[in-house]
Amino acid sequence: RARVVAYAADALGALPADHVPGPLKRAALFTPQRRARIAGEQILDQLAADEEFRERIGVQARARQADAAARLAEGAVTVETAALAYLVQPAGWQELVAGLGESGSRAVDDSTRLADEVLALRRRLEAALSEQAALRRAAKEDLAAAKADNAELRRKLGDARSQAKSARAAADRATADALERVGRLEADLASAQGEIRRLKTQVVAVEGELARAQRSVRAGREEGTLRARLLLDTLLQAGQGLRQELGLPVVTGSPADQVEADLAEVGTRASSGAGSRASDDPAHVREVLALPQVHLIVDGYNVTRAEWDETSLESQRTRLLRGLAPLAAQTGAEVTVVFDGTNAESRPLVQPPRGVRVLFSPRGVLADDVIRDLVAAEPAGRPVAVVTSDQEIVRDVVRRSGVRAIGSRALVRLLG
Predict the structure, then answer these.
(1) pLDDT digits 0-9 by tens, 96-140
(2) Minimum mean pLDDT among 49-53, 194-198, 357-361: which range?
(3) Residues 343, 347, 350, 352: is their CA dihedral positive or negative?
(4) With contact defined as beta carbons under 8 Å apart, do 87 and 47 qualify?
(5) What does the pLDDT look like over 260-317, one tens digit per residue?
(6) Please, is 358 exposed, middle or buried when counting C-beta atoms within 10 Å of its C-beta (0-12, 13-18, 19+)?
(7) Which residues are bridge partners to 359 per DSSP?
(8) What phi-psi label fits residue 337: left (phi over 0), alpha (psi between -120 and 50 degrees) or beta?
(9) 32 with 20: CB under 8 angstroms?
(10) Which segments of 27-103 are extended strands (E)?
């Protein structure tokens, strides 16, 4: 019955809609498995009541169940062929179904026969287990005898091992002597190679010293030219600004030379960087940026951590550089920002804004040292200001070099 329902449910989906009985029209929309599960009894009722419907289902089932149809044609008696025979109803299909019942009876007889064979096999298994126990007892006796023989063999093996140990000791002494001689030869070779490497290192060092000397000569010439040019531009702009402020006419001769000498003297005079304003007054920054050819050096993290320490270092760098870019564009001042990279494994990727120079101290070098180098590189007389709240820089570098010092909060407030 289940096989008949399955075949009919599968064939029902292939029938045209006008060939499907009314009670099964909704079930025809389901999948074959769902049709068989939900409308199985209705399908069986329609097959029994509607001969024309059964014949149409039989035609579709024969086409869709090709293997079962082939076995049915051969006269095979199985559940599949019996179910298909019920749908198709060829001549003699009742005998085929009856034969399937006889096959079931034969299967029961076969099951009884197999149970008898299993019982016989169990008896044979018990006999085999008894025989195996006897064999185990015999094996234990043989094992005891083998252990006795093994003890004798071990004694003989111990004697042989003692002899082998003596021979091995003699061989080890000979090997040690040979290794000692090889070690002395390898030490001599290593010493010779070390001497060669030392000489090569000296050659490389001499070549490096020569290259550094050559670079130093070139750098000295370039640095001297740059420092002189910057000082000259500073003096020229300062002179032009003073001439415009005082409304002085153009003169020639020794008075101009005297003014130039006075300007040079003022340019080299040391400044404490302190004034009547507080160190965090933004007006201090505006006054410095108004100077001609001024170089503003910013201690990066010292400034950002004064107000923005709660954000990441990347955010602090971005905020500072975005604020300095318009200042550099408006004033034309040279702006250099130095960030501390002494503990960084690699230098962060930073896109400097136009007019702002961004430096990271090398690994193992403090940003304070880079600021000292920048201040030392400037010619005497050029306006230089360092924005930092690090009192060590203010004390040891800024005031001793005649450079102006500006508190970090002054720049932060100006940017705000």
Answers:
(1) 777 776 665 565 566 667 877 888 898 889 899 989 999 999 999
(2) 49-53
(3) positive
(4) yes
(5) 444 444 443 334 444 556 767 888 889 889 888 899 999 999 999 988 989 998 999 9
(6) buried
(7) 338
(8) beta
(9) no
(10) none
